[in-house]
Design a protein that fits this description.
mainly alpha; de novo design (two linked rop proteins); 6 helices
Length: 188
């Protein structure tokens, strides 16, 4: 074979290797992005499940309490914010606000023994507790998928392809700083 043919074959092989690496890298980033999208969808399902339970819980509490309208209004308002949230950041903030409102509502419930012993309230509380656990798992799964995706698009040579194809970092679903505070409830 001529020297020029060998050089051409080597160049073609090199180009094919580079192309295969790029295709594999791109497909890997697509898979990781789909995992993030799937995780956020699962999280949305759990948040919606909780949002759907809240009106029943609020109505049950309303039936037993007469002067706790402020807390009930806060829960209802926080639920509305969560249902209408668009971005992951908005959902995260609204979720924290709803959690804080629900915690305050549960503090109020402690002062109503008849309510606590109501079968309907017990069932709703159990469903809500189960949903809260599912939300925690879904948040963890989502954040794990985001970590994997973000790490992938930051690594070399993926970062070059990520920039070329418009892959951008995803946001984590974070708890609000206020979510660790104990709710304040007064009975005046």
């Amino acid at each position: 074979m001529k020297k020029s043919n060998i050089v051409i074959i080597c160049i073609v092989i090199f180009i094919l290797i580079i192309a295969m690496i790029m295709i594999g890298t791109y497909n890997g980033m697509i898979s990781k992005k789909e995992a993030v999208d799937s995780s956020v969808s699962n999280l949305d399902v759990m948040l919606q499940r909780r949002a759907d339970l809240i009106p029943n819980l609020v109505n049950t509490v309303k039936g037993y309490t007469s002067h706790e309208n402020e807390i009930i209004d806060k829960v209802t308002e926080a639920r509305t914010k969560l249902v209408n949230a668009g971005s992951v950041e908005e959902k995260s903030k609204a979720n924290s606000e709803l959690s804080n409102s629900l915690n305050a509502l549960m503090v109020v419930v402690e002062n109503y023994p008849d309510l606590k012993s109501s079968e309907n309230f017990k069932q709703l509380s159990d469903e809500l507790a189960g949903t809260e656990n599912r939300i925690a798992v879904a948040r963890k799964d989502y954040n794990d998928a985001v970590k994997t995706f973000n790490t992938s698009i930051k690594r070399f040579p993926n970062n070059i392809l990520a920039g070329m194809f418009g892959f951008e970092q995803e946001s984590y679903f974070e708890a609000d700083e206020k979510s660790s505070e104990v709710p304040s409830v007064s009975f005046e």
